[in-house]
Amino acid sequence: MNAPPIPARLERTRDLIMPVMAAASATLGPEMRRAAEFHWGWRDEHGRAIEARSGKALRPALVLLSAEAVGAPAARALRGAAAVEIVHDFTLIHDDVMDEDTERRGRPTVWSQFGVGTAICAGDALMLLAQQVLLGDESPHRHLALLELCDATQAVIAGQALDIAYEGRVDIGVDDYLDMASKKTGALLGCSAALGAILGGAETDVVKSLRGFGSSMGLAFQAVEDWLGIWGDPDRVGKPAASDLRQRKASLPIVIGMSTPGAAGEAIRRWMTSNEPADAAGIEAALKSLEATDAERLTINRARRELAGALVHLDAADIADEIRKELSELATFVVERSL
Amino acid sequence: MNAPPIPARLERTRDLIMPVMAAASATLGPEMRRAAEFHWGWRDEHGRAIEARSGKALRPALVLLSAEAVGAPAARALRGAAAVEIVHDFTLIHDDVMDEDTERRGRPTVWSQFGVGTAICAGDALMLLAQQVLLGDESPHRHLALLELCDATQAVIAGQALDIAYEGRVDIGVDDYLDMASKKTGALLGCSAALGAILGGAETDVVKSLRGFGSSMGLAFQAVEDWLGIWGDPDRVGKPAASDLRQRKASLPIVIGMSTPGAAGEAIRRWMTSNEPADAAGIEAALKSLEATDAERLTINRARRELAGALVHLDAADIADEIRKELSELATFVVERSL
């Protein structure tokens, strides 16, 4: 299937939040600012301005749509939109330290460029900066918005800690995986979809439906990412083929594979706990075993089932119809773009 | 000089904030809670309750006194008191990762017990938990208090990043050091001394004087810590003799030594940039060079000068006289206890 065109909303959002992020970044200490703006692709390693690469800005786009969904102008949610993006950046910078990943989006990660200490400080500063951006909002609903952002950020941290706790274990089931992914990925997307409505002064039940929509969309998104981590086209994904098998990362298809009885499951469990280096022959054999299980079909099914669940939440939300349509298209895009 | 008795206030404060910290900790994910309660000395590495060691609780004691200073009951500042202590714990846990320190207060550090990943997550979770504790305060001045806590926490992070940036440099002057220490240590003590007054609804100028008091006290405190890091009695400090020379840590006396012209200064600069292992003979020679400069006297002078500055701020504050006396005694205790 050809990838559908990227919704204009995603392209536009980064331009909208950029001034908020730039003003916030200017309040940071020089070491943290250099690291953050390098991470964002605004500056090279010497601090010189470079042409910014525009990422997807999915989370802030959800925040702005969420405000419009309850009849508030998107501008009222700009600080919320910048805050969720900054939280996301904090998690990427710290995750890269913990996972010892040296490259992200084709550039060195913050720790590999500036050292582990500076990367830890930069992540700390960004997590707090997100709070400060939202604290500076004039909305009467600011306090509720802060509670929402804090809860989601704690969930993301808890999800990352679970992910670490799962390392090297072959007894992780699909439910364990979903618990982890709903925290690590679902929570911040759920918060994003709720935050605009909160800042727009929406009722609790609308907020709850939108949060449910974002959270299920997050799980669907993660399932697709995990599918790409095994079967994605290396040229398009920017990672080697079967990357997660190579890295022995317990993604959804691999967890499904490890939970499969019989020889194929056993081969995957052996691969995941092996201390042998991941050579091409080993990866190919592990991939064959994984494909002998039902992991690929079940992973795609999971993505589509969570997407369907997201749309049920969306239908239940008492929001403007044109925004419902746009949110629905966005969620569908995020899930179907690569399948 | 004999160490003066520990003020009763410090002993009492930990009991007061303990229930707030315990309730907050119970909201964390299990990995982070285990790490935090291990760090606090409430639990052993298996999560079993042990007899809690009571630390100094200097920062929360300042918060409670700061509320009483402006005529508010200490109870009104309990969440603020717990929040500054939790911020302090976040910084300790992350600093230990960055400095690769394996021991703190005679026990393993969080990263050396639970791994780097879990320690980073635990620090992240605690920084955010401090915000959440304060967000849960019912005070009409909660928003101002949050701004104060965020500013101070950003300053602490910026100070730690500077500390890292200074590593291996011999051109750090006393002003650079004071800039770093006023952020890394002064800011959170300044915030502590301000926060109770803010939560108690005090006027801006009272808050400012109290913040100045705490901040100068923080610099004085750090100068004493740095003196102890060279000349402290190993049995009382719990570190080897001349510990900061051994670790080649650019503390205040060492920065003073490195800035001293002549042979002694040159010997210290050579020691600090040497790649040789720190053997007993080398440490003793470096200590001799350091003592040939005026570093010890100037370090003690700096501590006493900052203490005097703190007391000037305190005198300027329009607060209850009996609390002024208690704050003054506390600051004097903190500085003079070991000199």
Topology:
The structure is a homodimer of 339-residue chains.
Chain A: H1 8-25, H2 30-39, H3 58-69, H4 78-99, E1 103-104, E2 107-108, H5 110-114, H6 116-135, H7 142-166, H8 174-199, H9 204-231, H10 234-237, H11 243-246, H12 252-258, H13 263-273, H14 280-292, H15 295-316, H16 321-336
Helix pairs in contact in A: 1-3, 1-4, 2-6, 3-4, 3-8, 3-16, 4-6, 4-7, 4-8, 6-7, 7-8, 8-9, 9-15, 9-16, 12-15, 13-14, 15-16
Quick take:
The structure is a homodimer. In chain A, about 70% of the residues lie in helices and about 0% in strands.
Question: Would you give an account of this structure?
Answer:
The structure is a homodimer of 339-residue chains. The first copy, chain A, has 339 residues and is mainly α. Chain A has one domain: Farnesyl Diphosphate Synthase (Orthogonal Bundle), CATH 1.10.600.10. Chain A is 72% helix and 1% strand. Chain A contains 16 helices and 2 strands. In chain A, strands 1-2 form a two-stranded antiparallel ribbon. In chain A, a hairpin with a 2-residue loop joins strand 1 and strand 2. The longest helix of chain A is centred in the middle third of the chain and has 28 residues. The first copy, chain A, is globular. Chain A starts with 7 loop residues before the first helix and ends with a helix. The mean pLDDT of chain A is 94. The interface between A and B is large, with 40 and 40 residues.
